[in-house]
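Practice problem. Given the sequence and the SMILES for glutathione, write out the predicted structure.
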Amino acid sequence: MKIYWIKAQAPRRVLALVKYLGIDAECIQVDAKAGGLKTAEYKALNPNGKAPTLVDGDFVLWESSAINAYLCIKEGSDLWPAHNPAEQVEVIRWLSWNDNHWAGAVGPFYFEFVVKETFNIGPPDRSELAAALPGLKQLAAVLDSHLEGCDFVACGRLTIADFQLAAMACDWRRSEMPLAEFPNIVRWLDGLDRLPAWADPWPASKSNEAPAAHDRHASLA
Ligand SMILES: N[C@@H](CCC(=O)N[C@@H](CS)C(=O)NCC(=O)O)C(=O)O
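Answer key:
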C-alpha cells in the first residue's frame, strides 16, 4: 500500500493514523514545489493534483477522511466505527461539519501563517483576517460547548473526526486564531498533542517508511 503525501494538514491526518495504527505503508513524499502533484502520472491517480492519495493494489483513493475510514476498516480499528451505525453517523456529522464550516473558518488563519511560510509565498497579511474573526468565534463556540466534559469530538473516544477537525486548528497559536477564550477546544487540542502519532506524524525520510506501532494504544490521559 502506498500513500502519497506532502508536509501539509490534509496528508497529516492520514499519516497520523498510519503511525497511530502502526500500518505498514510505503509513504511517498511528493515534491510539490517541483510540481510533483501536477504531473500527468500523479493526476492519473488524483485528478485534483493534491495530497494525500492512497494506492492499495488496483484501488486508488483520495480525500483524507475517506482514506482514513478505509484504513480503519482494513485494520479493524474503531477510529472509524464501521459496525456501529449510530456512532458512524456521529462521526460523519463532525466530518461534514468540518468540511462545510470549521475548515472554512480556521483556513484563512492557517493559510496566512502556515501555508504561506511552507510554500514561501510571502508574509502573513493580518488585514485578510479581520473579516474572518466573527465566523470563527461563532463556530468555535459550538465546538467548545460540544467538548464540555469530553476529550474527543465523537463517540467518547479518539476517532478520525479528531484528526480531521484538529488538522489546522492545532496550529492555532502560531496562526493567531482566537481560540484561547475557548478552554474546551484548547484542552482537546493539547490532549491530541500528547499523542506521539499526532504530534509527529511525518515519516523520517522521503519514501518507503513503515511507521512503528509504538503508540497504537496511546491514550490522551
Ligand atoms: N479535501 C482534501 C484536501 C486535499 C488538499 O487540499 N491537499 C493540499 C495540502 S493540505 C494540497 O495537496 N495542496 C497542494 C496543491 O494544491 O498544489 C483532503 O482532505 O484530502
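Check your answer against the key. The CA atoms of residues 115 and 137 lie 21 Å apart.
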